[in-house]
Amino acid sequence: RDTNITMLPEWEHLRDDIFYVENPQDIEALAAQMRAMLQISEDEEMARSQRIRATMNRYRWPNLIREYQAVINRARKSATISS
Questions:
Q1: Rounded distance, CA 26 to CA 1, Å?
Q2: What's the pTM value of the predicted model, to 2 decimals?
Q3: Element (DSSP H or E) covering residue 44
Q4: What count of other Cβ atoms lies within 10 Å of the Cβ of residue 10?
Q5: Which domain holds residue 62?
């Protein structure tokens, strides 16, 4: 597999908005997805892009850093309370 996108917790939200090909070497499946991409309207393309961006926003580096810092702060606070 070239991607682990299906393992993300957000996969259920993403699966309808992306054009996923299980095996990129499957030329027929790839061609079918490319044909499907060409059939959507520009408005639908923009809407999908916005939904994907919103769903995947947590994986942007600044957001990951904040998430990691929050976990570290909670662990520190918990360790302080335990002491």
A1: 12
A2: 0.65
A3: helix 42-56
A4: 13
A5: 5-82
- Separation in Å, CA 78 to CA 65, 74, 82, 83: 20, 6, 6, 9
**Cβ 11 vs Cβ 5: under 8 Å:** yes
| Overall number of domains in the chain | 1
SS3 22: coil
The H or E element spanning position 75 is: helix 61-82
pLDDT tens for each residue of 15-63: 999 999 988 899 999 999 999 999 999 999 999 999 999 999 888 888 8
Contacts of 13 by beta carbon, 8 Å cutoff, 6+ apart? 51, 55
DSSP codes of every residue in 17-31: TS---S-TT-HHHHH
Q: Band of the pLDDT at 6, cuts 50, 70, 90?
A: confident
